[in-house]
Specification:
By secondary structure, the protein is α/β, with parallel strands linked by helices. It has a single domain, classed as Transcription Regulator spoIIAA (2-Layer Sandwich). The chain is 45% helix and 22% strand. The chain is built from 4 helices and 6 strands; from the N terminus they run βββαβαβαβα. A 6-stranded mixed β-sheet has the order 1-2-3-4-5-6, sandwiched between helices. Strand 2 and strand 3 form a beta hairpin. Helix 1 packs parallel to helix 2 and helix 2 crosses helix 3. The two termini are 17 Å apart.
Length: 135
């Protein structure tokens, strides 16, 4: 059961799925800089407010991450997400050669940033993402 907990913007949508205890964050388009950070900071606020243990980032409408974005995710977003209580995080990426290359770098950085006991996966399917956060 999903409940839209934040007003949708042209950049993103954020829902909380109480059945999965998971925040589902969807990129509606590619953004950079402050828009990128603000959208994910909005997701953190919902994670904290709901006490969610799962996080799904649907990045199928998002192209490759820049080095700055990856650094911010590793340095700022991921530690705050873990501190807020996320135990399982999954990113959904588009099926493309460029996405596959970006996926490898994103996964490597995520693995380096995650402490033991926090699980991360990348997939191309929302169904698989939901299975993953279910455990």
């Amino acid at each position: 059961m999903s409940t839209n907990v934040e007003p949708e913007t042209d950049v993103r949508s954020i829902e909380y799925d109480s059945g999965l205890d998971t925040v589902v964050f969807t990129w509606n388009r590619y953004v950079t800089g402050e828009q990128f950070r603000t959208a994910l900071t909005d997701a953190l606020a919902v994670i904290e407010r709901e006490g969610a243990t799962g996080f799904i980032a649907d990045a199928r409408e998002f192209t490759a991450h820049s080095d700055d974005q990856l650094e911010w995710l590793q340095r700022e977003f991921t530690p705050r997400m873990i501190e807020a209580g996320i135990e399982r995080s999954v990113q959904i990426h588009p099926e493309s050669v460029i996405a596959e290359m970006d996926t490898e770098e994103t996964a490597e950085r995520a693995d380096a940033a995650l402490p033991e006991g926090v699980a991360f996966e990348m997939t191309t399917s929302m169904d698989r993402a939901r299975e993953f956060v279910r455990g």
